[in-house]
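Changelog-adjacent note: as of this version, every example in the card shows the full chain rather than a window. The one below runs 409 residues end to end.
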Amino acid sequence: MTPLSRDRALEDFTGLVLLPEVNQSPDPQAVYDRLRKQWGEIAPVQLEPGIPAWLVMGYREIIQVARNDRLFSRSAANWRYFDTLQNPESTLAALMTPRDHAYYANGDEHRRLRAPLDDGLDALDEHRISRETQAICRELIATFADHGEADLVAEYAVLVPMLSVARWFGIGTDEGYRLTEAVLWAFSAGPQSQKGVEIIIEILTNLMQSHKDDPADDMTTSFLRHDDLRNDIEVAFSIILVIMAGYQATIAWIAQTLRLILTDPRFGSRLRGGRLGLDDALDEVLWRQSPAANMVGGYALADTEIAGQRIRKGDAVFLCYAAANTDPRVHSDDPWLAIGNRAHLSFGTGPHVCPAQRPSRIIARIGVETVLTRLHDLKLAVPADEITNLHSLWAVSPESLPVRFSGSA
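Full-length structure tokens:
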């Protein structure tokens, strides 16, 4: 392991890996293993060229950071590279620019802004989510069912989570498609990013006004009526948080699970009476190929240490759930031991743990199951080793998933 001098700052290290390239790698776990051997459980990396950060890979170390919001602020206003987020070409701005919602808050402010999310999600009717998600999945499949081939990422996985979650807020299908396109733009770099943000704001402004005029049994009305949201800006950003926080991760969860089932005989055989089923595949993806690979853990408010390495005030600390879930200190290499075990960190931990674990699992499970039950003789249209991952800082996910099938139900 390379010793880190206590007198060296992040900026002093050279030759650091780019985190999006790790996620794009055919085998991200192999990269994590190399980083562990070189640096230990926390490694210096680059978010973009010239923008360094710490990557925490240890299971216990992630818990240490995630549960200490007094030392690690979620607001990038405390980051030494905050000005980077003003660059329209930066890919970091979409998820790191501070907004008026719970993701970027700490302490009492976080608890105030988190309460409407918890209350709104707890009130969701899971049977209704299931019915609506099934209908969405069937409608999407119907658009390519007669073609005998499809890209299950671009034509399906990218759309299912957004159209499903949009229904929670009373957003219909047409606006759901428009919102999906706007979110994709918002996550990109360049002028399209700002255009995407503007369209999202337009959709949500009209949505809130319509619900003020005509309240409904959905999360928009719940947020508008909630005492802990003080104005329309907080309501709008709370809606954005729910829509966007798990968007890429749920896309990746669906796509990764479909890839696993189509390439791993242990799961493919289940369709022909094998031992492992859909829930096992969903769980294995969370353990072995965590869809939410990386998340901001915070920005150090003071000098500190993690796993013996010095973190300086203003350093960004990223939590690598994908690495922590395979931390050899807490998890075996035997994939069978993951079956039924849900102690992974793919939904995070601490005060900012994902509040939508149950509904997101419903969406992912139905998204995968509907494909498997409605498309006959489903198989990859290209060799498995030709499936490449997205170039993304946040998620590990197939860039495309071309398939062929003989017909549909």
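Structural remarks: The mean pLDDT is 90.
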